[in-house]
Amino acid sequence: MKVLIIEDEPELAKSMLSYLKSEQYKCEWAESYHDALEKIYAFDYECILLDIGLPDGNGLHLLQILKEMNKQDGVIIISAKDSLEDKIRGLQIGADDYLTKPFHLSELTARMYSIIRRSHFSRSNTTEQGPLRIDLLSKNVTVNNREIQLTKKEYDLLIYFIGNKERVISKSTLAEHLSGDLADMLDNYDFVYAHVKNLKKKLYEAGCERYLKTVYGTGYKWIDQIK
Predict the structure, then answer these.
(1) For a tag site, which of 16, 62, 100, 211 has the least CB within 10 Å?
(2) CA-to-CA distance for 183 and 171, rounded, in angstroms?
(3) pTM of the full predicted structure?
C-alpha cells in the first residue's frame, strides 16, 4: 500500500517512515506544501497523512485540490491543532479522519488500515473471489484453502489489482505503485512484467481462475468474473 506523508517536522516524519515501512507500507515523504503539491499531481496514494500546518502553505488547500481533482486517495489530517473547529473544517472539506499530535504510531496505522479497508475492500478484513481468499491483516493468501507464498511485490500487486477490479492498469502505473517516485528514473518497466508473470503463474498453478488478464499494448486488468 502506497502512502504519502506530508510533514515538515523531520523527526516525526522519519519516525513515521520507519514505522510504516516496518509495517510493509511503501512510503514517500513531502516536507513542504510545494513538494506535496508536485507529488499529488503526479501520483496516486492509498492514504495521505496530511499536516495542515506547513511552513510554505496551508495543508487544507492541498485537501481542497485533492477533492477538486476528484482524487480517491484517503486522507488523515495529522495536526497539533486540536480545536473542534479545526477538526470539523478538515472533515467537511473532505478528510477521512483527523488525528491530533502527539499520537501513537500504532493508532495511526490502525486508522490508515480502516480507511484503506473501507475504500477498497467493503470494510472487510478478508476478500474472496472464487477459490482465492486473502486475509488482509495477516497478509495470508490461499487458493482452495492452501496457502501460496508470494513475494512482497507480488502481494502488493495482487492487492492493488483486486482493489481496482475491472480497471485497465498501465505498466507505468504499476511501476509507480511498486517503486514510488523512483519510477521516473527507470529506463524501462520490464520488472513489472516479471512480477506480474510470476503472480499469474503462482495463482494459476494453485488452482485460481485466470482473473488477471493482459490487455495488450495497454496494461493489465483484474476481472471480477470469468465469462
Answers:
(1) 100
(2) 11
(3) 0.72
Q: Which own/partner contact pairs does 10-18 have at CB distance under 8 Å and 24+ positions apart?
A: 12/101, 15/105, 16/49, 16/105, 16/108
pLDDT tops 90 at residue 143: yes
Distance CA 150, CA 157 (A): 10
CA–CA dist 73, 67 (Å, integer)? 9
DSSP three-state, residue 211: coil
Cβ proximity of 175 and 225 under 8 Å: no
What does the pLDDT look like over 170-202, one tens digit per residue?
A: 988 888 888 766 666 667 778 899 999 999 999
Closest CA to 216 of 185, 149, 170, 178: 170
The residues near 188 (Cβ < 8 Å, ≥ 6 apart) are: none
Residue 23 has pLDDT above 90, yes or no: no
Task: Please name every residue paired with 5 in a beta bridge, in sequence order, or none if there are none.
Answer: 29, 49
Beta-strand relationship, 97-100 and 74-79: parallel
Q: Which residues pair with 140 in a beta bridge?
A: 135
pLDDT at 16: 94
